Amino acid sequence: MTSAKDDRLVGRSVARREDPRLLSGRGRFVDDIELPGMLHAQFVRSTVAHGTITEIDLTRVRQVPGVVAAFTAADLELGDITAQLGRPLSEFVPTAMPVLARDRVRYVGEPVAVVVARDPYLAEDGLEAAKVTYAPLPPITCEEQALAPGAPRVHAEAAGNTLVDVGLFATEGIDEIFDQAPCVVHVDVRTGRQNALPLETRGAVAQWDAREEQLVLHTCTQTPHQVRTVASRCLRLDERAVRVIVPDMGGGFGLKCVVGREEIAAAAAALRLGRPVKWIEDRKDALSASFLAREQHYTARAAFDADGRILGLDADVVCDMGAYSCYPFTAGIEPLMASAEMPGVYKVPAYRVRGRAITTNKAPTAPYRGVSRPQYVMAMERLMERAARELRLDPVEIRRRNVITDFPYTGVNNITYDPGSYLESLDLCERAVREAGWYDRQAAATAEGRHIGIGYSCFSERTGYGSAAFAQRKMEVVPGFDLAEVRMDTSGAVTATTGTISHGQSHETTMAQIVADTLGLDIAKVKLHQGDTDRITYGWGTFASRSIAVGGSAVRLAAGKLGDKLRAIAADEWGILPEETELDRGRVRRRDDPDVALSYEHLADTAYLKSHLLPKDIDPGLTATAVFDVHNDGTFSNATHGVVVELHEGTGQVEILAYFCVEDCGVAVNPQVVEGQCRGGIAQGISGALFEQITYDAQGEPSATSFMDYKVPTAHEIPEVVIHHLETPCAFTATGAKGAGEGGTIGAPAAVLNAVNDALRPTGVELDNTPITPETVHRALIPRTPEQTP
Amino acid sequence: MNDTTGLGDDVQLITLDVNGTCYEVITAPRRTLVDVLRHDLRLTGTHVGCEHGICGACTVLVDGLPVRACLMFAAQAEGARITTVESLADSGTGELSDLQRAFTAHHGLQCGFCTPGFLMLAQGFLAERPEATKEDIREVVAANLCRCTGYQTIVEAIDACATARRSQRAAGAEEDSCN
Ligand code: FES
Ligand code: FES
User: Which of A194, A408, A534, B20 has its CB surrounded by the most CB atoms within 10 Å?
Assistant: First the structure.
């Protein structure tokens, strides 16, 4: 029904359509928006980690030249941002996040008041004149303090500082399995608190449109419709009285898929003042006072038989979610994800897990690219490596014996995995490392006393979560479906809408490829609309690698329906059945006589401008809408990463010598874009493994407030990545594509950690935590006397 | 609230030469070059990622050399030639330069927020060091931050552009010697 196979764009590395504007400075990011009479907001932020507010004195702020207004929570009277799970209180404690702190502050950097001035510099001057007095409370800065009996509470309603406590699975008889297993290994894995760190910080421009009686909120969010919901509730407006527009976005990685307090406060200030208000987060606030991620602790053990086959997995997962639950996902997102999916690519017959989210006096967390999977994959891969050592098996071989090979496979976690290439990717990755000569070079280097290690990680990435999968988490707000509209105008040009929103993923290109193929249309004729709640009926935005799998499927279906309508109109003109026609390069042609064809321009002319010619059963106009949802457990992309590292004595530096990635995301709509996602994700995964961490001192003061003290890797630290593609098409997405957004970040930390441990093998030291600091490596490499060897 | 300009008392008139156009700007001494470019001159192609000189998103050329426009006061740029990303494409046709085209061909950008900084960094560097090797280029690319690409494709794009320019020059030189 589409054009000849050779013309297909899906599967080809079509040049990105967003590039010309981004390369020539014609993009429009939030901070590029300038409106007449616009004011600038900045936030007075808490300087203590935990305390009650005894006084907020903004008198002097209001006297600062150029300051127009300053508001506290009491001035604005906004509703709270509260994320809910439909679980009993024993499993989930909801906590309200006020837009501005009212009487209590729970982390350093929490917004306490908003200052609005004529210019951002003057707003900063205003902040300096603010006087807030606190009665400090003891800060909770780590898991041990949070869970200590009788610990002070971060939220009065959360006993034991626990927001989520669930035991999703407990296979009967699991204790006996562990008692009788020939090999039981343990790990204690901790991952550092990170920042997803889009290079563009958060920001918003809010304006009351008096003619439309509508708040127009330009903001860089991955979830525009969800921001609209929260804004309308906090500001007590109808939802149609809020329009959220997302301009170009400088990355998000999850940090921008939750609703921030500042964008709502800026909107409230704009309504109060009747003037546009812009807020652009500075890097200091972005680093320490926005949404952080990743800090988790796994205590896990696995039982194996003598041949290295896994018999059981028993895990306790604690996620430090910081001060508040994020909207819409809640503090449940990480422990529930980890609990549901930890067995990963392995055939685990027995499973028990306890997943907890704790609250501490640290900036709240958002779901960062990979969400729990980088961490549980690390725990699983450490268990595999440890068992391989105990059982004297090759680390690749033990994985080979455990990966799922028969699909569909329903796991002990009640999840059905669709077909993937787990074993093939593992074999291919090992072969790539071997053929590049790394095993030989490792042997030679070891003989010279150098420390080269090879490590792997084998994982899947569940993508295309539909409403069924999210409903299982018992979210009160259940994401999942996506809605697309494809319409043709009288000139035969096509506009498609998607509820997803690109922040670097190239949707304007990939979605257009899908539409162009479906309609047999020149891609230049296709334009995508995204990120505007007035243009797009509804959408769930972009997260969980859903855009191509779910959003792309909706676009594909809508384009197909539009194609059907074009055929119906043409068929009517010829007096034949629609089935007797087909789409071909901008025309509908007769199957029986392919030389007879009607152009889309002609059909569009009929559909709109000569609608009296249409038969009764065909409505005028050329527009089609489709919804796509996933009613099963989603689709699993998979990959194996192989990495070669060298550890340097003295400096403790971990140098990455080579990186291999064998990935399978089904049909790659645009292979170059997929590779870009892999490379970028791997860079972020390496960052987590080796560099990035925000720590807190005993007072709850964050360590990182600038790029001087939060190490973001550069081209020095990030290696070239060799990528191999496998393709196991997804059977139920409309394009055969699976998601590809997060895999790189998921696999890299485990592979790097395993490689470091491989290099450390002669020392007897094994590391389980990230980031792996130079100090740790340096210490591990100091030669030990036999008594000191652990 | 007595301030109507939003600039404070201490304003000055400066003249800036940006992309070959002369601009007169009334500004405060503490205003950075990047803020004046972006918000006073509305040349928003240059971006701000940190305001403290690390990320390089604000890189522009000052007298041909890459400079972090967040670390420079606008007043300090008086009398210098400032070049921003807006100058790279052909101003008449909008056609992208060879460097910009190389970024597209190699997928050297995703969100595009860091891109103007990398383009100007490369533009300045390749003008100075047309013979730069891929290793040299990787060195220089390490001056700026990108959170999306993992850098490899940025290095490849700049290297491809440098290589193409060299072979063009060589071809040109040959032609010259024939004539
Ligand atoms: S904004 Fe100038 S270096 Fe980051
Ligand atoms: S392309 Fe997004 S930061 Fe570089």
Answer: A194
- CA distance linking residue A317 with residue A741, whole number of Å: 24
pTM of the model: 0.96
Closest ligand 1 atom to Cα of B50: 4
Q: Which residues contact A339 (CB under 8 A, 6 or more apart)?
A: A166, A168, A169, A317, A353, A354, A355
Contact B8 A248 (CB under 8 A): no
What gap in Å lies between CA A106 and CA A49, rounded to an integer? 6
Q: Whose CA is nearest to atom 3 of ligand 1?
A: B53
Residues constituting chain A = 790
Tens of pLDDT, residue by residue over A189-219, are 999 999 999 999 999 999 999 999 999 999 9
Preceding amide of A408 cis, omega within 30: yes
Mutation target for A interface from B152, B154, B156: give the one with most A CBs within 10 A. Answer: B152
The burial class, CB within 10 Å (0-12 / 13-18 / 19+), for A77 is exposed
Q: B32-177 adopts what CATH topology?
A: DNA polymerase; domain 1 (1.10.150)
Three-state DSSP state, B22: strand
**Which of the pair, A545 or A256, is modelled with greater confidence?**
A256
Q: How many Å apart are CA A163 and CA A330, to the nearest integer? A: 9
Establish whether residue B148 lines the binding site of ligand 1, counting it when its CB lies within 6 angstroms of any ligand atom.
no
CB within 8 Å of chain A, chain B residues 23-62? 28, 30-31, 38-39, 42-52, 54-55, 57
Q: How far apart are CA A454 and CA A425, in angstroms?
A: 16
Closest to A274 in 3D by CA, of A204, A205, A210 = A210
Q: In terms of CATH architecture, what is A33-137+199-251+256-289?
A: Alpha-Beta Complex (3.90)
How many other CB atoms are there within 10 angstroms of residue A394's CB atom?
A: 11
**CATH class label, A481-629:** alpha beta
Per DSSP, chain B holds a count of helices (H) and strands (E) of 5, 5
